[in-house]
Structure formats: structure tokens, C-alpha cells
Amino acid sequence: MAVSEKVIGIDLGTTNSVVSVMEGGEVKVIANQEGARTTPSVVGYTDKGDVLVGEPAKRQAVTNPHNTIYSVKRFMGRRHSEVQSEEKMVPYKVVGGASDYVKIDINGKEHTPPEISAKVLLKLKEAAENYLGHRVNKAVVTVPAYFNDAQRQATKDAGQIAGLEVARIINEPTAAAVAYGLDKQNDETILVFDLGGGT
Questions:
Q1: Which domains are delineated in the chain?
Q2: Chain-wide mean pLDDT for the chain?
Q3: How many CA atoms lie within 13 A of 113 on its CB side?
């Protein structure tokens, strides 16, 4: 009997990320490899060439600040000239000409924000695959409502790098409203307040 293809839902957050799946009409948040339901959106590159993602990366940030990348979502799909104030708030090196898209210099090698975000997406994808017991190829990913087309495309690119087909990009407040109304039959007005970790 073939397993029907599951589409996972990912909240790729500035501070933390979450992966979930629909099971029996309910949203099930999937625990990561460390057993937590949220994964820090942090990627660390060690001197030995290892790449750490999530809590392991966050734990070594104090001793390896220049090679530990966090809040990279702020740089997704943005040109270097647009991020002058954000650049000053992080210890890692943000590079690029004024009209160039942002890159992050890690040990002398330049990485794009989608490449770094893909590491977080891959960790979430693997957690979902471990939970479901089969490969996952498709995801719906949430983005802030203010994301422009370039930022949305950068998010899709990150998914592709992680081996995911991003079936849909949904605004975070829209996703919350949809999730709230999944089991509702009546017509009502709801207020969604998105207090993200990055704001």
C-alpha cells in the first residue's frame, strides 16, 4: 500500500522555526532531533568544517560568534544597501556591493541567506521524515506579511536547496487564521496578532 504524500508546514522564523503536519484533521507539531518542538534558526560553522544547526549551533555561539549565523531571515532577498542598520546588529560579516544581494562571509567563503536558511529547513525536513517514516518532498512555508517578491523567492530558493518543493508561501497571519478556522463551520471574525521572536 503506497503512503500518500504528506505536505509539511514550516514556520521559518527569525528566531525559531517549527515543522508540523496534518494528522487526522489535527495539526501535529513535530519534535526535532533534540526532542524540542521549536528549533532555533541558528547555523554554526566550526573550525573543523562541521555545520551545526539549531540548539547545537546556538550553544556554541558565544565561543564562535563570527561563524554562528542567526536572524538571517532579515537578509533574505535583500540588497546590501538595504540592510545597513541590521548589519551592525550581528557579529558575523555581511558582505556585498550596494546593489548586490546580501551574502555572509564565513571563514572566507561567501554564503547566501537562502543557503544558510536551507540548513534549518533541512533539519526540519529530516525531523519530519523521522517522525513520518518516509521521505518528504513538499512544504508550505510561512513568511511575514511584509515580505516582498524577492524575499518570498529567496524563501522558495532556500526550500529548493534543502530538497523541498515549496508548494505555497503563506503570510504568517493568514496561516494562523486558516489554522484557527480548520474545524470551524460558523462565520465569524477573528483577530490575529503575530508576536514573532524577531520583533
A1: 7-39+114-181 (3.30.420.40)
A2: 90
A3: 29
